[in-house]
Specification:
Layout (H helix, E strand, L loop, with lengths): L6 E5 L4 H12 L3 E6 L2 H13 L3 E6 L5 H15 L4 E4 L17 H28 L3 E6 L13 H21 L4 E8 L8 H4 L2 H10 L12 H8 L10 E4 L7
Parallel strand pairs: 1-2, 1-4, 2-3, 4-5, 5-6, 6-7
Length: 253
């Protein structure tokens, strides 16, 4: 088991890619903290991990709020005494509210950035000190093709927030490399998760998104889990500042 003895905090772990990664981390031997604003789905994820003979606890956290992030890390340290892996997955995509720049409300911009970018910084801010104490760790951010290319017209706030995640990944990687804290980002393609379920209800939209992928299909939550395990494990000891694609070839064309 590649993560045996490690403690992993996974934000937004109640559903979709976050849950898939939390389950995979547990199967690889990590003790997993499921951080989730939705209590029902968070506890359900913990139960799924426990059914798979893994070890996990649930911590309710709105990761856009500094105090709640502090309490999340405190609960992790109280239970397990360390933080080895931080997987920053929590995000929103506000369909029907995100828009072109001149049509976008400040409220939508602020909420999107609070959850998609501010939370990534906050969770890192409070996970790094215990990593420094134990002389190392792995931080993995979830980015997006929209943060690299203009492939999501009309999703101004979301695209900008994910571009910020890419920049944050790189500057953090440079800042903490000598501390043996590695910081990388995963870029999933269009993935069939609850976050974009409203879009995928339209069969025309689903078909168009599938056609954009060279592989001809949407991503599945499990498609990122193997890459996440690699970046979380000691197998990637010389990998930091990387932007790793798990997008079916979307960004290759």
């Amino acid at each position: 088991m590649r993560l045996k003895g490690k403690v992993a905090v996974v934000t937004g772990a109640g559903a979709g890619m976050g849950q898939a990664v939390a389950l995979r981390f547990a199967r690889e031997g990590a003790r997993v903290v499921v951080a989730e604003v939705n209590t029902v789905s968070g506890k359900s994820a913990v139960e799924a991990i426990q059914r798979a003979q893994g070890e996990s606890i649930f911590v309710h956290a709105d990761v856009s709020e500094e105090k709640e992030v502090q309490l999340m890390i405190a609960a992790t340290l109280n239970q397990y005494g360390r933080v080895d892996i931080l997987y920053n997955n929590a995000a929103v995509e506000l369909h029907g509210q995100d828009a072109r720049a001149h049509e976008l409300s400040a409220e939508t911009w602020d909420r999107t950035h609070a959850i998609n970018l501010r939370s990534v910084w906050l969770c890192s801010k409070y996970a790094i000190p215990p990593m420094l104490e134990h002389h190392g760790g792995s931080i993995i951010h979830v980015a997006s093709p929209t943060g690299l290319y203009g492939c999501a017209p009309g999703y101004t706030a979301y695209s900008a927030s994910k571009g910020g995640v890419v920049a944050l990944t790189r500057v953090m990687a440079a800042d903490y490399a000598r501390d043996n804290i590695r910081v990388n980002a995963i870029v999933p393609g269009t993935t069939d998760t609850p976050m974009i379920a409203p879009l995928l209800e339209d069969e025309g939209v689903r078909a168009r998104l599938m056609a954009l992928s060279p592989m001809g299909r949407l991503g599945r939550p499990d498609d990122v889990a193997g890459l996440a395990v690699f970046l979380a494990s000691d197998e990637s000891a010389y990998c930091t500042g990387g932007i790793y694609m798990a997008d079916g070839g979307l960004t290759a064309i």
